[in-house]
Design a protein that fits this description.
The chain is an alpha/beta fold. It has 14 helices and 16 strands. The two termini are 36 Å apart.
Amino acid sequence: MKLVMKFGGTSLADAERMRRCARLVQENAGPEGAAAVVSAMDGVTEELWALAEAAAVTGPALVETRLASLRRRHEEAAGCLGGVDRVTQLLAELERLREGIGAVGELTARSRDAVLSFGERLAAALFERALALEGLAPATFTGGEAGLVTDERFGEAEPLFELSLYQMGERVGRALGEGRTALVTGYIAATQHGVTTTLGRGGSDYTATLLGAALGAGEVWIWSDVDGLMSADPRLVPEARLLEQISFAEAVEMAQFGAKAMHPRALEPAAERGIPVRMKNTFNPASPGTLISGGEASGTVARSIHLVQDAGLINVTGAAMIGHAGTAARVFQTLAERGINIRMISQSVSEAGISLAVAGNQLEAARAALESALLRTRAARRVEADREVAIVAVVGSGMRGVPGVAARMFGAIARRGINVIAIAQGSSELSVSFVVSRAAGPEAVRALHEELVQAPGG
């Protein structure tokens, strides 16, 4: 089968690790060939972001210090792998771009994307050499050269789906047909006019699943520094287990609650085309990893328990809210206008109160915005904020349609003397989330894992 393998920044942190990843490509490529997608070397995207910001507002000395660090790291890897000339050429291009930003004293979103693209372009130049050292014949593409076309929302570009799949299938598929190993930069793409864009968070994973969909791959493998998804954070629950198989829907839910999983957007192409995604550990390749597929794995009622500690709770209350159409919409609109994301919503049947969980660093902004919008017009009587809270989430398709799950869940919490402040559940029954005090969060996770995952018949 055709195989697409994406390697993250920690997997490509230096020349030795690149050689390790190249061997994984060589060992796993079947008769139909393999394509590799690469991220920037570990920490390089952050360095480039800081470089771009500094180029617009500071003098050349600080900028040159950052450039020297990037140059030293990539030239050192190139010295081990070969390909020094290509790395030198790319670094010279980056230097010219930096000079242009400094000359105008302004960093646009378009210019930032151009700077950030060098992380993946440099990594691809190095990984091309690593593949060649393993006896493979790489055909290297930037995302745009591979056919990945996006709109012009720089920094968070959205692919033109059908056009991108067609072009990537044609161009990358042709290289595979010639017996070559395709190598594509993750994260970066281009507009229809050829201007470089970036795909935002999870962009390299997104590139990999788009490429898998375009090629009709048998599987997409995401290589990182962990064995796969766990049933809980092992730091909180030493008994946490590796999840060998989960559904796409479960993976999306887990990602929403902070699991070290793929960004939900990156799963869409694979889910739509029914292409399994396997998460594997570069440093423990014998581990089966976690398989994400369309089927629902049998097993425990809950697949995983999550804790979100960076959270705050807003309570909006008042008799004027009862039976008054549009109050909830006004609350949501007020927060949306200020770019505040709502993580969880709970409303009483009486309509006298709405509880909203937001990120901890947005709590005060949310409170101030809602007070201004609602108290002045008496649409609500009180807006209260509580920063000493955490969100606990239970995820698993095994809960769907099973009576008694809620009783077991809240019984386990109650036996530990933990008070539940607010509760939310979607109609899909894939997850239940609730708010507890921040201090009680870790104990709540352990109680639920013991009851719903570890217990016999859990």
